[in-house]
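User: Quick sanity check before I run a bigger batch. Here is a single chain. Can you write out its predicted 3D structure?
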Amino acid sequence: MNIAFDPSEMIYPFPPKPAVLSDNEKQVYITKIKQLLNDNNAVLIAHYYTDPEIQALAEATGDLLVTHLKWPDLVINTQQQR
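Assistant: Done. Predicted structure follows.
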């Protein structure tokens, strides 16, 4: 049998998944991200299909979970606040 597609020879096109972080490591990153957002007057936007931890961080930093339909309003509001 001639196999046109051999999965064992397929190159995985994505980077390897990162190592699982401990709760303490997560908290360190969360603190750093919050500080960077604050220092740079930036917002974190997480779509509904983003990792739930990223969505939670977006909510925790006072920012929004938005779909692409709400993006123009968010940009306008953010620019007006600066």
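The first helix runs from residue 23 to 39.

User: Great, the batch can go ahead then.
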